Amino acid sequence: MxxxxxxxxxxxxxxxxxxxxxxxxxxxxxxxxxxxxxxxxLVEVLDTESVGRLLLLDGKTMxxxxxxxxxxxxxxxxxxxxxxxxxxxxxxxxxxGGAVREFVRHPEVESVDLVEIDDMVIEASRKFFPxxxxxxxxxxxxxxxxxxxxxxxxxxNTYDVIVVDSTDPEDFAQGLFQEDFYRDVYDSLTENGVxxxxxxxxxxxxxxxxxxxxxxxxxxxxxxxxxAPIVIYPxxxxxxxxxxxxxxxxxxxPEKISWMKEQQKTLQWYNCDWHKGAFALSNLQKKITGxxxx
Amino acid sequence: MxxxxxxxxxxxxxxxxxxxxxxxxxxxxxxxxxxxxxxxxLVEVLDTESVGRLLLLDGKTMxxxxxxxxxxxxxxxxxxxxxxxxxxxxxxxxxxGGAVREFVRHPEVESVDLVEIDDMVIEASRKFFPxxxxxxxxxxxxxxxxxxxxxxxxxxNTYDVIVVDSTDPEDFAQGLFQEDFYRDVYDSLTENGVxxxxxxxxxxxxxxxxxxxxxxxxxxxxxxxxxAPIVIYPxxxxxxxxxxxxxxxxxxxPEKISWMKEQQKTLQWYNCDWHKGAFALSNLQKKITGxxxx
Lengths: 294, 294
What we know:
six-stranded antiparallel beta sheet, globular, alpha/beta, homodimer, seven-stranded mixed beta sheet
């Protein structure tokens, strides 16, 4: 197995070493299916024994066959079920296409714009993750190969839901967790719009989750947190932000509940009960996000 | 660092290699604080950089400073808040004392019996996990250094709650997941008693979770599942069974809710809202446990 510069391999094991090099998660690899350096990052696709195909960006786990549905169903259906007049959706990052795939299920959605800075992520997903990328050519979907921050600044008062499906708050993704960016997101959302975003692991709090939520609270009148487990991510237990200009995440759109009860039979993770339960936070999550009182 | 027979060390990293040797989780170790072979297993305590002190049994992660409260508060307060007339509690396994510590908080509990087959686990916990083991000398607590299966057979119609705080369903713990054992648990419970038990990770379903729940369903009239994240366990997202002779896990004892609202300010994980949310299962958990319909 050829060593890459960024990614940690030992024998036929790939390891993601994280939390200031004190913790690692390793996956036994059958084959490296893809490895190329884009202008932004190293893009790799491994075929593993434990989690199926695994997408890495700069040596960090992003998407796997075994659990991609958890992340994508959680980040998409939670806002989609609570925003009324859901017509226009924007996904920032998420070039794998998983979040896009979930939004196009919703019949009232007119368009899903995907802004992915790195074309190579999209192409690798098309080739190696046919399930994730299956909706990228859907007539409602438009792909913009641009910087998400600039794109949002140029589209005011446009989107009913914006999803920030980003890597960790470091390097070129750091800007996606700052107050200035959240202000641009706020302006890009319509009157009753909602932002959802991944906000890291609360046990091994490497990226100051409280700081992320404080930034959201400076901009949005209502900020909530929920969670879902992403097995391939370091620490697995993952928090998500739901930042809202109006909607309450526990008030599912009554006109859509019976539709979703049918739809969810085809989903692998999301259902309306789970949706509500995911916002019932533990004391730890309340403390680390500053959302709710113990 | 001295190598042990059972435990995988490389340099100053400890690894738990699991799921048929296709997945590993590793912790950087400052110091091995304890390592001794009991008649049952290798008992080790590591001081790690990422999760504080870490108890291993035969090279498998059991308890860490960073997340012990999740497991113990989840496995104890869920039954304790839903069983009426909670007087006598039995914890099978759990020699670290964490579950016991949570039960003695409940004022109406008269006795907590702990049956731990391996005295060395208790002694290692007393020495290295003062937080977990803090209630082992509480006047309500009685420790039995015996085999849990036999103990339960000798105590019919005795306990209002039984917790099976066991290792994985293999080796000498395998019997704790079988129909015969669950029948003994049923007989050892009082009329409206409840069993809670850890039931493994649903993504990397190494131990046939469906089989465990099928065994429970052969014996108990009501079987539910809930979940909590245990960061140090392989795959982290952990399922728990709530098998009941009567109580419904969503019906919290109304006489105790206001007491718990005060008590939970001192807890790190559990609160009454989280309790209810933890039973709102994803499609995956419903499918893998056979509990509830999608």
